[in-house]
Amino acid sequence: MTDANPRILDYRDHSRRLDDNQHVYAVVSRRSRGLSIGINLNADKVCNFDCPYCQVDRTTPGGARTVDVDRLATELDHLLKLVRSGELWSVPPFSTAAPALRRVNDIAFAGDGEPTSAKAFADAVTTVGRLREAHGLPDVKLVLLTNATLFHRPAVAAGLAELDRLGGEIWAKLDAGTADYFRLVAGTSLPFATVLRNIENAAQVRPIVLQCMFMQWDGVGPTDAEIFAWRDRIATILDAGGTLRDVQVYAVARAPADPRVGVLPTPRLEWIAQQARSLGVSVTTFPGLPPRSPALLEPRA
Fold it and tell me: Is the pLDDT of residue 238 over 70?
């Protein structure tokens, strides 16, 4: 029987459901401009942030609290076999992706929480690097999507060093310029100063990417003063000797957890991007998209 609501894989579908996998999934990503293979080290949906724009449904139970690295390896090995053979694009839902998006850009440590909070973070990085090499996929880069709250921990620093050894990239979240706005967009009581210090230190060791989501809250976007403060935070990173590979300025593209979150208009997003460009850094913008009806998406795992 034909599905009345077939799953179409595009930027608005970030379902982390793939077969019976616990740790490995794949999505079409705006910022990757193709397929991103996700490594979910937080299947239990526990996160030290509670961003209102996050699409993870935390009202339903999560999975296992601990990371089964052997299972992760088995799941990733299977998916990379499909990637290397080209068979991936004949398997639903990947067969529904637009031709221009049928490229595998990266393997990303992302998922339902902060990846570096997992005790197995460093082991997972090593395992993913080993499998990428075993399948002969050196052009598929490794990416860590992170809120940078835990970089100062020795175990996390070891994982970051392993990521460096494998030529990976850190994409660190910086959505605010002030502590008050940080508390709104991150939904946490963790100190903004810790995040800023960790990003600053990380950027002195290797070039990093800043991922910066801007939204409307109850119909209102961030003020000019907030954006100028955000720009000043970036300037501080640069003045301290940090290197930024890129600053990603983007708006909501998927259904958020909080209905008060709205899409920031593209002209305003471009104005924000220009504030960062005035510092001489590379900036890439990703305008928002109206979220697809939840009825057309597969349920979250």
Answer: yes
Report the alpha-carbon distance of residue 225 to residue 101 in Å, rounded.
37
Please state, in angstroms and rounded to a whole number, the distance separating the CA atoms of residues 183 and 48: 12
Q: What is the pLDDT of residues 13-38, one digit of tens each?
A: 445 456 789 999 988 888 888 889 99
Q: Give 71's DSSP letter.
A: H
CB 196 within 8 A of CB 221: no
> What are the two backbone dihedrals, phi and then psi, of residue 234, each rounded to the nearest 5 degrees?
-65, -40
Residues 6+ apart with CB under 8 A from 123: 69
Report yes or no: 75 and 23 within 8 Å, Cβ to Cβ: yes
Write down how long the chain is. Answer: 301
Tell me the whole-structure pTM to 2 decimals: 0.90
143 φ/ψ angles, rounded to the nearest 5 degrees: -135, 140
* 193's tokens: 């100063």
Least confident of 43-47, 76-80, 295-299: 295-299
